[in-house]
Structures are given as structure tokens and as C-alpha cells.
Amino acid sequence: MGRDFMDPEHLEPHIDADYDAEETSIKDGSAEATEGVNTFLQEQEEKLRRSTPWKTYIMITAMTLNYFMVPGFFAGMGWVLAVVVLVWGWTHSLVTGLMLDKVSERKPQILSYPDLGAYVGAKLFKGSKHGRRAGFWTIWVAQAIGNFLISVANLGFCAQFFQAIFPQPCYTWWIVISYGFTVVLSQVPTFHESYGVNLISMFAMTVLFVLIVVNIAITGRLEEVSYNIGNVTTVFNGIAGICFAFGGHAIFPEARREMKEPEKFKQSIYWTYATLGFTMIVVGFLGYGMFGTEAELNIFDNFTWNVSVTIGNVLMLLAFFGALVIGNIISMMAIQTILKIPLLGWRKPISYGMPAGVTRTLLRVTLVTLQLFLALLIPFIGDLVGLTGAFSSTILTFLFPCIAYWVVFNKEMSIYMKLTCAFLIVLSVLICVVGAYGALVGLIASATAFPPFQLPCSYLDLP
């Protein structure tokens, strides 16, 4: 047993200079090509490859379709800056998504995002064990812990929508009820099995988009609409929010791993970004044009037609449960890989003295229960969203893909491409630091407002 648990050589097999074998060696299966392959994932690779471009598109889009928040970003930043940031976020994240696809195409033996982090760390530090460790654990924490915290935020959002639909029980009870649904949904083992939930979520977001446009047409423009110019703080908070809205890259290597034809993954990316761009521009301009600085982060809070608002909250609830499923799948698969708990299978193989399905179920119930306690102890979830957006989404979506692309394609990149990557890297670091600072200040304020275990309402409030 005497192996170092913190060493990715134990968790994710050895990575060294042989990992840079020529493409021909990779194809013919030589010793150089197999060096550095994650054998735990490789053993399950064939079983995992079941998804199609359409299913992958539905999954990524259902997770990232946050167009209803865009008018709120416009209200905070002003429409000029908001449009600039929105176009930047869309373009930057599309480019980095395609970068990740190219890197995965060049290095098909890398089957997870943390594996890619270990490879990049090893290359940057010339094969150093510490470089591998730093790369692996930085990406693992951003992926697993970042998505875990995003799921905490989504659990709180689900509770808010429950409370909006059925206002009698207190918010605390609705978090507990949302937790009950989440425990069941958390047992979905991989992305492929989540297709049904993703389809429901995608349907809900499509109907919601139509409902928002109809509501804006019915409500009409407010009599006195003011428009915000914005300041440095609101701009960076808005940028952190945009990072969160476009932050789906944490699942890209794993989603590509599950495709029957991984070379078609870029097709899913193009479909997703076409959908994101269209819906965000339409809802952003219409919502901000109608409500100006009064536009809420959830645009439905601006509407007065009660039937429509109720329907909208039901649709939001369905959509966020879908996002909860994907966020939990990626964080829990990352944790399962660390613990070497099989991603698939129920009776076999045996894991930790129990059937794999039992071990997986116990782990996931434990993790979702931890999310419940965090959601109860953090009464204001907006700052948690900002923190995860600044940390996880910025690193995985904007920062690391540029670094990985540079490492893998360094000898083939033009000076122009290197300068572009350098600029994007500096910008991403700045956003991460400033956005995380602002979110942490908000979280500290929230924590002091409600000391531990003094929840906003009592369990006795349930009628």
C-alpha cells in the first residue's frame, strides 16, 4: 500500500517525455503511445462511448443556457459594456472549446480534464513529479470542487423556485425537499444516462424563451426607464457572471470521451454556441430595453402576469434540476476516478468490498448530503455563483485551454497565435482574481448575517 495518495502517478498513471510520442505511434499502439494512459479510465472507455453529437449538444446546452440572467448583467454594467463582455465571453469560450477539442484530438490517450492538467504540468516543469502533481490537482479541484459548489448554488436556486411556486413553507424546507429530488437524480452514473433529464431541461428552456419574449411584448416598456453606465466593480462582477454563464468546458474532455465518434464533438460545440448566442442577445436586449436598471438577474421577477410567472418558475425549476444532474455527474465522476470506483456497472466489479453500484450510491448520497448542509449554511447564493464563476469557470473555460493548446501545439503556433493566447491568459487571470475577491467579500458578509445553524427560518414554520 505504501504509495503516496497525493501523487497522480498513483491516481493517474505515469506521464513523462514518452507521452509526446508521434501520432503514428499512438495509432499503432506502441509502448510509447500507451505510456501515460489512465488505465482505470481506459478499461471503461469502450463501455462509455455511446453518445451522439445530438445528445452531447443537448447536454452541454442544457447546462449552459442561462439567457434569463443576461438582462440583469446589462442592468449592472450598462448595455454597451455588457454587449462587449457578452461578445468577448461568447468568442473566447468558443475558441477555447475548439482548442480543447484539438488538444484531445492530438492526444486521444488523455481521457479526462485532470489527466490533461497532469500532462501540461509535466511538460511545463520538464517531467517533474511536482509539475504533474500541481497540474493534476489544480484542474481536479477546479473541476470536482468547482462543479460541486455550482451544484450547491443550483440547489439553492431550485429551492427559490419551489418557494415562488408554493410560498407557504419556508425556504429551508424547500432546500430539504430539493435535496430529496437531487438524491435520486444524483444516481445517474454518466452523461449518456442523463439524456432524458437533459431533454426535459432543454424543452423547459425553449418554452421559457418563448414565454419571456411574449411577456415582454405584453408588459411593454416601463414609463420611466433609466440605463446604467456601470463602474469597475459592476463590470468585473458582470464578467464573473458571464464566465459562469459560458462555463461548460469542465465537461468537454469527459463529454468527448463518451462519444461514439469523438471527431464530431466540434459539431456539438458549434450547435451549442449558436443557441447560446441567439438566446442571450435576444433576451438581453429585449429585457434591458424594457426594464433598464430595474432588470432582475431572473427576468421573470420583472413580470406581473401571475399565470405566466408561475409557469416560468416551474420551467426554471425543471431546467435547474437538469443543470444539477450534469454538475453532480462531472464532480462525482472526478471523485470516483480518484477513488477508483467504476463509473458503470452495478453488481460487478467489487469496489471497497461492495458491488460497484452500492459503493457509487453511498458516495453520491454522502456528497449530495454535504451539498444540503452547505446550501443551508449559505443563505445568499448569488455570491457563491460569482465565486464559482470566477474560479472554476474562468480556469477551466478561459485560462487552462489556452495554456494546454500552447503546450501541445507550441512548435506549430504562429507569433500571432502565441500573442493571442498570452493576452487571453493574462485577461483570464485578472478576471479570476478580481471576481473571486468580490465574491468572497459577499460570502463573508452573508456568513456574518446568519451565524452557523441560525437558519433564516425555523423547521416549525412548516404548516
Question: Keywords, please?
Answer:
single chain; 463 residues; mainly alpha; Amino acid/polyamine transporter I; two-stranded antiparallel ribbon; 19 helices; disordered N terminus; disordered C terminus
Give the termini separation. Answer: 54 Å
Q: Provide the structure class.
A: mainly alpha
* Mean pLDDT level: 79
CATH class: Mainly Alpha
CATH fold type: Amino acid/polyamine transporter I
Largest sheet: 2 strands, antiparallel
SSE arrangement, N to C: HHHHHHHHHHHHHHHHEEHHH
Give the helix level as a range of percent.
over 70%
Strand content: under 5%
Q: Please, how many domains?
A: 1
Tally of helical runs = 19
Task: Going across the biggest sheet, name each strand in turn.
Answer: 1-2
**In the CATH classification, which architecture applies?**
Up-down Bundle
The CATH superfamily is Amino acid/polyamine transporter I
Structure notes:
It is a single chain. The protein has 463 residues and is mostly helical. It has one domain: Amino acid/polyamine transporter I, CATH 1.20.1740. It has 19 helices and 2 strands. It has helices at 8-11, 23-28, 31-34, 39-42, 45-48, 53-64, 70-77, 79-106, 113-124, 129-165, 171-185, 195-219, 232-245, 252-257, 265-291, 306-339, 356-377, 382-409, 415-449, and strands at 350-351, 354-355. Strands 1-2 form a two-stranded antiparallel sheet. A hairpin with a 2-residue loop joins β1 (350-351) and β2. The radius of gyration is 22 Å and the shape is globular. It starts with 7 loop residues before the first helix and ends in a 14-residue tail after the last helix. The model is unreliable at 1-36, 450-455 and 458-463 (pLDDT under 50).
